[in-house]
Every structure is written in structure tokens, then in C-alpha cells.
């Protein structure tokens, strides 16, 4: 069943970087956009009003996790994932292909689907691309991903090739599955950092009518050079009139680089996971909230930030929360890191609109780039 | 050093129940009031704005815990506990006598103070009543409690008697310790459920100029009958023109009973601890959020409640949060239980003002009273 065309309206370009409006039935989203990860229907420790207050417009859920708990029927009867979680806004569900291959204990992949053991209770589970679409139809997110085969980063070429072939076949079969009128199916390009496989995969998928294209299989251990090179290749090939989604990337410098290469959507557990572990990004670099150095530091985390953590509390108090292990600390640090990324992208969008994106990125280089970081392809 | 008199203005009475305004330098509080417990400077998982939004006016911190972490100097340099925690409102600090005797491994009590091992690292610590006042002066809460000796509920009479004598001596010595101008020292009446010891302890303390009187050593395992009887005895003796604080009581029915007996202030970890463990109070009784029965229950926790959990989420979603162990569940359930108590007390204050408190309590009996619950002394 064909759903109506996803509206994706470019409003500014600067080099390969671009700004657009992505319009869903649950609201519109400015791109480049970062999606906080609500794997199992909650951005850990954070509530929807708080997410909105720091600038979130689009959330990501995970079909694999939600299939296991609470089950798609529970979510469907609640009126879909956006209503079930209280977010009531635009959402994307990842298929969970990555989770099947990383979390579960994989038993066998056949053209029919994947047989694996649940990471929760070890029970044997079978997931086909068609099952995955049924689950995501029930979850009801606006943007939907097909089940894909995700080999490890160091897989031999033959395994990568088979993964590409099966992922393409599964994506085609997913396209034939019914979705609700408001839902739109993306394709996921695989192929590791192999140039030929990436090109082949992208071209085969582009022959079909997908609403957008995701770049999967990156940020899984390859070098930054290889990742940036692959992103650039993808951005050069994938159609300009549809959203390009770089999966699993949330490092602030990587975001800036990949926006510069033409990517529109991003997701990662990095801001929230780092936050829960007491590491926050600031305008002056990373800060470790476990450090005794902060015991009597009564400054905000980041004097330039307007998030709840920075406007309401001192470093000393946040350090205390981490020391006593209170989840308010996890929440505040998660919100701060999310706000950091949203502000970074707000600045990026503004810079793109004003034709000074290179300059904007250069201004962040000293703070964000890892020592010995990779050269940005196509950039100075 | 004498601080200025604490303002406590009675505005309504109904039988022994009363409503008053308690005025502190950080704001005023309507009594009867319940204090959420921020033992170590945070009401677990909840933030100050949320506490205020559900009706909190007065928070409790614990001198013993805050002495160990983060240390009173850290709090003092932050401008006091109210500022350090971001609460910026009225606070009371308990001395931690109860914690020294229950959490720590007590080594020796002498007239000088208590020698014990820290519950955190086993280090040997000594705390005198004077130390405890110094710590609380640094913490800067509006209301301050003296160090007291807290024997177990089943202690023999001689041990109870010694505890009373030492607690009275320590309270007198505490009165001689300097506090900041805005701080007010309460006394704590001990004596278990022994009528004579309670009367003796109260009379000796009432001979001194304390800002208010707390009833300690209850809700520690004695029968409800014995607890209510002791509370009634205390309410009959303690001066009517000062606040009466019943320590450690937070069961909703106990609150109603003890407000009826003339108590003004209460604290307990019950609403937040129960909430974190997935038990919530509702207008129809207790609800267990771990129950599979709620899996597809799309009602709010309590249809009569206006808290964030009830206005934003379904039972099914909250059950899901507890199933996956997310701290958002702990927070929402804590806020709901706090809101339940605050609404219960809002109703109580209104009923007292309108001279229908007995009727109000009777209306809650079927929902709140435990099966086989104790008869309310002095009530029908």
C-alpha cells in the first residue's frame, strides 16, 4: 500500500549543507534535526515536556524493543506510540535490525527473516521484514524503517555483500506491506565502508519509491576518516529531494561534519547515555560530573546554556547528585547534553541560512574535535 | 544565642484539629503540612519545581546525611540548603539522631555525644549535640532539630528513661548554641509509648523556650493504638501556640487521625519510597504498578487527581515504565503520592475551617483505614 508522499521542503543550502522542513501528521520538524532516543518508549529518566523544552521535535523509538515490551498491541490500543508515551509529536521507529544483530543472540538469518534469542529472557524469536512492518504499523510512528541485516564493522566483504543483498530484498518487501496513511517508509543503505557495495546498495534502493534514505552501518567502530568518506559518498548519491538520515551518530563534531556533507537527520544514545554517566558537553569542552574538582564549584555547567540544569543548579550540586546516585542527576545531565546538541544544530541551521556554515564549524573545531581528529572531507 | 520568635498564627480550629500559618524567612507554610523528605538534599528523582507544582511548601533535609555528603561547608558556601538544592523555600533539618541510632553502627553514647561508624564507609565518627547545631547552622534551614537519643521501639524502660534524660540535656545544650537569625530550634519529645516518660520529657522541654515541639520515637513498630494514644497525650500537653511536629508519619489515614488530634507538621519517606517501589494511593485505594492487570489499562492512576502522572499518562504506560525500570516511573509515582497527601491535607484544612473535620475524616475511612485499623481516640 502506498502512503502519500512525505513532505520535505528545502529552505536553504550552503555548499552541501541544507535546511529543510519535514512535515508529518504529528507536526513539522526543522532539519538538520537530532532525534533523542526513546528506545523502549521513554528517553531514559526524561519526560516529554522537558524534551520539548530543550528543543526536541522528533523522537526515535525501537520496534524490536517495543515488540518485546510492552508489545505492539498495547501501544496500538493506546492510540500509537506518540500518544502512549505522552510525547504527542513526530516520531520515527527504527526496525530493530541493528538490535537483533547486536543485542540478541542470533541463531540464523534466512531470506525469510532472522531467528534469534531475545536479549531479555533468551526465548527464541523469529522476525521477518513483514512482521517488522506489522509491528511498526501498530506502533504508528510517522517515519518507519525496514528490517535490515547489520553485519559487524569488521565483517569480510562476502558477508557485507550478502547483508546488502538481503537488506535490499527486505526493503523491497517492506515497501509492499501496508502502513497507515500518515506513515512513511525509509530505506537503509548498508555496505560498511566498502565504496562499491555502498553505491550498489544505494542505487538499488533508489530505484524504489522510499520516502527517505538512511545510512546505516556506520559509527560502529570504523575510523572517522572511513565514516566521513562513506557519508560523503552517500550524500553525493542519495536524492536531494528526500531526507538523508545518518543512523547512530551523535558526537557533536561528527554532527557538524555530517551536516556539512548533506545529512539531515541523526539519532544517538550518546547525549543521554553520557549524561547518565556524568559526562556533559559544554562550550569549553567535556566536563566530568564525578570529579572532586567540582565539589565547591558554584558555576552552572555551561554559562552559555539555557537548559534546566544550567539555569537551576550549580556544578557542585550536580556533582553531589551523581555522588549520591540520584536519578535527578541523570535527568538533568541528559537534558543538558540534549540541549547542547539542539543549540549546536540551531546554530548550524542559522549559519546555513546565512551562508556561513564553514565559518560556524570552524568556530567549534577547537572545542569539539577530538585530538588527532579526522580531516573533514571536502572542507578546509 | 536567641533567635527571634517563630511566627505561628492559628487561623481555625475544629475540635483539636487546627489550621495555621507558619512564617519563615524563606516563605510561609499552611499547616497542617506534610514535608517531603529530601534526606540528602534531593527528594529522590524529583525536582523543586515539580515539588512546588504538586503543593509542597516545606522540605525536610537530614543533618546526619548532609554532614557526610556533601559536607556542611559545601552547602554553607552555596548559600544554604535551600539555595544549594534549588528549592529556595522553607526547610527543616532533622538532626540525624534517628539515623545515628538506626543506620550507623553505634559504638557508644556518652553525655558528650554519640560515637558510631558511618553507614557509608564504616569510618568512626563522633557527633555531639553542639556539633549537630554547628552543622545545622551551616546548612541554614529555617527549622532545626536537636540531636536526640532514639532507642528502638522495644527498648526496656530503663533504656527509654536514659534516652529521655539525655535527649532533654542535649536539647538544653542545643538551645545554648548559636544559630543564624532566621533559624528556629524545636525540641523533640521522646519516651516511646510510656505515658509517664512522655509527660516528664514534654514538661522538662516545655520549661525551655523552644520554637516548636516534635514528637519523636513513634511509627517505629509500636501498635497504631499505642501511637494514637501517645499522640493524643502529647497534643493535650504541648503548648497550643507553637507548632507540633509528628516525626516520621506519612500514612494517609495516620495523617488524618493525627491532624484530628492536633498535630501540625509531618514528614515521611512513605509517599516517595512507595512511589519508587510502584505503589500508589488513589481515591479508590492502593494500586500496584507492577501488576499485569494494568497492561492495557488506559485510565489515569486516579481520575480525581491533577498531578503530572495522572494528567499526562495512563496506567498502562506507568506500568510499562516500572517494567522496564525507568526512573521516570519513580518520579511520576512519587509526584502522584505526594500530590495525594497534599490534596488530602488541602481538604483537611478546608474542612477544619468549615467546622466539618470529623465528617471529612469519615468520608475517607473506607478508602484509607487498614483492615482491623485502630479506633481513632477521641473520635467516633
Describe it:
The structure is a homodimer of 380-residue chains. Chain A folds into 2 domains: 7-268, Queuine tRNA-ribosyltransferase-like (TIM Barrel), CATH 3.20.20; 275-368, no CATH class. Chain A is of the alpha/beta class and 380 residues long. The model of chain A has no long low-confidence stretch (mean pLDDT 95). Chain A is 41% helix and 19% strand. The interface between A and B is large, with 38 and 38 residues.
How much helicity do the residues of chain A have? 40-55%
Main sheet record of chain A: 8 strands, parallel
Q: What portion of the residues of chain A fall into strands of 2 or more residues?
A: 15-25%
Structural class of chain A: alpha/beta
Q: Would you count the extended β strands of chain A for me? A: 16
How would you name the CATH homologous superfamily of the largest domain in chain A?
Queuine tRNA-ribosyltransferase-like
Summed up, the domain count of chain A is 2
Radius of gyration of chain A from CA coordinates: 20 Å
Mean pLDDT across every amino acid position of chain A: 95
Tally of DSSP helical segments of chain A: 15
Q: Give the low-pLDDT segments of chain A.
A: none
Find the CATH topology of the largest domain in chain A.
TIM Barrel
| Strands ordered across the widest β-sheet of chain A | 4-14-13-12-11-10-6-5
CATH architecture of the largest domain in chain A: Alpha-Beta Barrel
Assembly state = homodimer
How far apart, in Å, are the first and last alpha carbons of chain A? 46 Å
Largest interface: A-B, 38 and 38 residues
The CATH first-level class of the largest domain in chain A comes to: Alpha Beta
